[in-house]
Amino acid sequence: MSDSAAVPAPRQYRATLREAGRQLRGLLRHRSIRVGGVLFGSVVLVAILADLIAPFDPNKNDFRAMLAAPDALHPFGTDAFGRDILSRVIHGTRLSLLVGLLVVVATGVLGTVIGTMTGYVRWLDGPVMRVMDGLMAFPGVLLAIALAAALGPSVVNAALALTITFTPRTARIVRGSVLVVREMPYIEAARACGAPHRRIILRHILPNALPPLIVQMTFVFSVSILAEAVLSFMGVGPPPPTPSLGNIIAEGRAYIQEAPWVALTPGVAIALSVLGLNIIGDGLRDSLDPRLRNL
Amino acid sequence: MKSCHESRRPTPLRRLLIAAAALAGIAAAPAGAQTEGGELVLAQGANPPSLDAMTSSSESARNINMNIFESLVTIDENVNPIPMLAKSIEASDDLMTYVFPLREGVKFHNGDEMTAADVKASLERYREFGATRGMLDKVAEIEITGEYEITFRMSEATPTFIEGFASPRAPAVIIPEEEAAKGANEIEIIGTGPYRFVEFVPDSHVTLEKFADYTANEDFDGPTGFGGNKTAYLDKATYRIIPEAGARIAALEAGEVQWADQLPVPAAKRLMSDPEVTVFEARQWAFLTLIMNWKLPPTDDIDFRRAVLYAIEPEEVMAIATEGFYDLNHGWQYPDRTYNAGDIGKEIYQVADIDKAKEFLGQSSYDGEEFQILTDPNYGEHSRAAVVIAEQLKGIGINAVVKQLDWATVLKIRLTDEDWNGWTLMQGLEPFLGPYGIAAKMTGEQPHQRGTDPVLDDGYNRLITGATVEDRQQAFADIQTAVYDLVPQIKIGDVGRMQAGSARLKGFKPFRAPRLNDVWLE
User: ABC transmembrane type-1 domain: from which residue to which, for each copy (chain A) (predicted)?
Assistant: First the structure.
């Protein structure tokens, strides 16, 4: 492998951009990624435009319309406070995606740093990974519930609890990739050329260890949405009246026979979000894994 | 003071109690062909925190304990005090002595006979561990004056003493002397009631079985309230702990349980059309209230509290909090009760006066700090009320936030001066038992609002020591006036409770706890 440092910078960036564009077009050619992208993209769009498209204030009570069945005014009915379910689900979706995004970013950064360091620096591997193993020994959602209960109900604490829960798994995946990549001949060549560790990690190891991480992030995103719903359902998510998909379901469970729309509507929203992300994840795995690429 | 024997002559109080007891007994006498045997399975939402009846004022414990244990006096169907393990209640004219002749031949579940020694030991234990031991504060001495007689010597005449002593909140039950020597929650569960304790598996169930040697009180014609002439028809009763309301309903509909408590109103309304189910509506179940913390800004400011009072629209809060099963009532007593104080506060209560609320807010030192409303999800009425109140207060510029924590944590926090300004609370037994419990929570050493006021203290003192009913009515009216002025608590409205039973369950009437006596399964 040639040392990219020898290539003049502008030409290198143009080449990198061309390569990224080529790879993106390659990914979009994959049917699963297109289908998942449309599905999840729609959910993201709804979340971004929540303030514009929600027909009502999600916290506006109306005791004359408690548990009203779906009609033209409230297409998905109202809850026990007379609040519009559609508006609450739209805003709840925004919050779920926000938590998912926070967890993905935080988990991605922490997991990458820990995984890379433990994979590259041999003496760190044992002690740090044993701590990660310890965290992984707890069932993920239970650990998140315990942490969220200890930290108190809020959006940030829910995201923090999920980050602590999912970081060890991400770190383990990155570490596995780094362990493989660091033994590659081109890494040995870079070392022989006198490249410093930082350059070897950032320019040679990380880019080649990223594909499994990208697939893992789609998984973390979808599991975070589910886990946030679980936390809110258990009462340790954002406090009322903040709408989240989990607490809307929790409020609707007592009326599942009399007003099923209260619990079903956010349930469908969760299912669509997670389905879209999982399909994207499947597509990414197929596209990025050389073993599956030609199957 | 007259001697004990002299005082056996019926006093007005005694005559009243006996007459009320007899009437109530007749009114509640069972009729028809009862079926013996069978097991009744009841579903309730929470574990009993303890089956040591003296130490717990929890509803989930009372539901069970009132069938295992009995006390010297209790309440009848109309909430009047009646003798239970006492044969009668004999008060001296100056109310400085109460003599309780005991019913003879009453057996404990361990087979021993109850005597005055057991009663004294139990009441001395209550003074130490009783959850509402304050009701014995005015009792200077408890004296054994016969094998079957106990005498109270009072430190101060308290006309309302017997009403307080009969309270089932954390009842002053009678247990064997050897058990009474044990610490809180260390006793064997042995009482004199119609059902005896078998087992308690936390988070699962509590099992009771019929006490074959139960000694019914034949001074009464039939059962009444928690007393009277009680008969056990069922062989066994199992209380299943089912926290989820939907699961309780499903268990009832599937026939797995024959009685279920705390049903969501929409589900209860649906069940009304089911011929296999009988729905019981307890209309006057509790007061929904917002307690203020006088020790923490901004609720330490009387003008701020008045702003909150005027900003609350009770109908919206009640309709949503109770799922539509409520009565709007400004009074701190139910409308048909002796101590109802009429229209005091009605004008303030009826509808929100936003202009006035803003005026008070402007006069206060409020500077945008958080108004933290403490609540819990365990009682839906609490959390729903908190959410609606918060939205209403935001409407006048108060930065209201809902602080929702589990019930046990809420109970700890509300005993501190920090971390809460308002607290949504249903008060059930207090208004049910009359004016004393309600007023007691606004005064004394540990008032709900964390602070006291001489006006409230004086009103409470006159309420419990007033010589005549009129004196006490005036005292309670003064308290209600002060409550609308000083705002220690805000009355939101009266809450109902929905319960349901299998159509096979006969003889059941809703009361403050499900009574296993005089009910049977067809």
Answer: 97-281
Note whether B386 contacts A239, CB cutoff 8 Å.
Answer: no
Q: Domains (ranges, CATH) in chain B?
A: 6-26+48-185 (3.90.76.10), 284-496 (3.10.105.10)
Report the C-alpha gap between B516 and A81 in whole angstroms.
36
Verify whether the Cβ–Cβ distance B406 to A235 is below 8 Å: yes
A241/B402 touch (CB, cutoff 8 Å), yes or no: yes
Other Cβ atoms within 10 Å of B16 Cβ, number: 13
Three-state secondary structure call for residue B167:
coil
Our measurement of the distance from residue A17's CA atom to the centroid of its chain's CA atoms, rounded to an integer in Å, reads 25
Q: Show the tokens assigned to B89.
A: 């209640």
B459: CB partners within 8 A, 6+ apart: B439, B443, B475, B476, B478, B479, B482
Indicate which of B248, B263, B272, B316 best probes the interface with A, i.e. most A CBs within 10 Å of its own CB: B316
Give the separation between CA A272 and CA A93, rounded to whole angstroms.
11
CA distance A47 to A280: 18
- State how far the Cα of B144 lies from the Cα of B304, in Å rounded to an integer: 54
Query: Of A84-93, A184-193, B71-80, B209-218, which range is least confident?
Result: A184-193
**Residue B81 CA, distance from chain mean position:** 14
Query: CB within 8 A of B486, min separation 6: which ones?
Result: B302, B305, B453, B455, B456
Contact between A10 and A17 (Cβ < 8 Å): no
ipTM, interface predicted TM-score of the complex: 0.81
Nearest to A276 by CA among A81, A105, A33, A30: A33
Using one digit for the tens of pLDDT, what is the confidence trace for A1-34? 444 444 455 666 677 777 777 777 777 778 888 9
Q: Which CATH architecture has domain A39-50+76-293?
A: Orthogonal Bundle (1.10)
| CB-closest option in A67, A80, A153 to B384 | A80
User: Which residue ranges make up each domain of chain A?
Assistant: 39-50+76-293
